[in-house]
């Protein structure tokens, strides 16, 4: 059973904040979430001289907190216990990583605007530095979740993400499908037949799925789809699958071979984050990796 003792929601005072707060409330309604921290950092070093001259010694933190409190009062009514944290630190990602450690945050909810509106640089930094799982919520995402796609590569991290997806599916009555993208050693064509190579690759991957199902009986009946990369990256194939079928949530297990999470994000999560997908992306670290 999935329980979240503490969840952090990162706000940036943009029009996506209301949607993030509403999404946080829906999570509290459907999952056991004990406490939510709504967080914003004011980078005072970026305030222009014009601002300082116009507003002088205004207590900006108090004004920002009041603004967030209004949004929370309107969009989080009926949610769980919560707290608003506004800070003034030069480095936002380090400040948020400290909060994760201080309050034992299990999940961070991070908003994402489309690429034509934002570079996503801060989000990428947060993905690399936050010592917890991250749920990326695009501005175009739907609040209602009915189906999950769990993309796996058979690593321990991806199996952890898959097991979380299954628990989430069972708790909330969601549809779940597993996806694996396989690649062929094209450097050996035409020495070997492409048709035979595809057949052999499918046979090997299907064997891996059978072994996985034996080790984790709870996923034995979950349908899975095998997709050949065929000249595209794994992230591109996952993105195409999302467009092909109707899913409401994508779950990926973050790499865990390196003991420092910030050095083990992996190219697939990074590439998917930088793509304009319109469903939430849950990037999962296991507790073992975090520790």
UniProtKB/TrEMBL annotation:
Q: Which domain of life is it from?
A: Bacteria
User: Which InterPro entries does the entry mention?
Assistant: Rossmann-like_a/b/a_fold, UspA
The positions making up the signal sequence are: none
Q: Which organism is it from?
A: Rufibacter roseus
- This chain belongs to which protein, by name? Universal stress protein
One Pfam family, short name: Usp
Domain UspA residues, every copy: 146-271
